[in-house]
Amino acid sequence: MSERSPSPQRAAYLRAQRRRRRLVLALQILLLAVFLGLWELSARLGWVDAFIVSSPSRVVHTLMGLQNSGELWLHIGTSCLEVMVGFVLGTLFGTLIAIGLWWSELLSRVLDPYLVVLNALPKTALGPVFIVWIGAGTESIIAMTIAISIFVTILNMHVGFLSTDREKIRLMQTLGATRHQILWRLVIPANYATLFNTLRVNVGLSWVGVIMGEFLVSKAGLGYLIVYGSQVFNMDLVMATVLVLAVAAVVMYQLVLWLEKFFKNRLGVTQ
Q1: C-beta neighbour count of 169 within 10 angstroms
Q2: I need a surface site. Which of 6, 88, 124, 217 has the fewest CB within 10 A?
């Protein structure tokens, strides 16, 4: 049986939504084009010092130089690998700890003040600690990334677990469900939205952790390029690296959105 065609009102609504999305996209592209154009014009006309703020044309020239020398993908690959490892481990460990806190109310009460303090603690203060404990290498960068994202994951997921409909939990308990069954059949499925919201937040936090770590100990990566460029007063290199960093973060964010859409459309997740 063929699907029913939408009503005229529904079709008009869908057309209006598509027009609105196209308008938003066009305005976003226009805003970016105006910004880049004014930036380039200001540098060429001497309104700003191109040595300090660079310009789009100089950024492109720098990126082409990095590409031709073979350094560009080395630094991108190094940072992306560190981000992915820290992102996955921080989210995984944070979710597992949140499950433990939901499972044991006593454990939750004991650890709650410590988690709040650790979440509020500036993670840059932990950088030298990780370097001394783990060593000046990739491991310290990944540890910094995990430290930044794990506490946000714990707190967000734990709050989500505690917000699960109490009436549904009582109903399952009445029907004889074990705590394990309640967790996997109700609590976790009810918090898919919380999980994906946390993943989106952790994208940015993971990049912050990696760049901070690379500022301190790395000899390769986007953070290393930013520090090196600032040390030799090569703002073209700094701005080019910031641009690459922004693109990489956007790509990773879009991958998380795609994963969320996949779960909703293919696996029947509605929340």
Answers
A1: 16
A2: 6
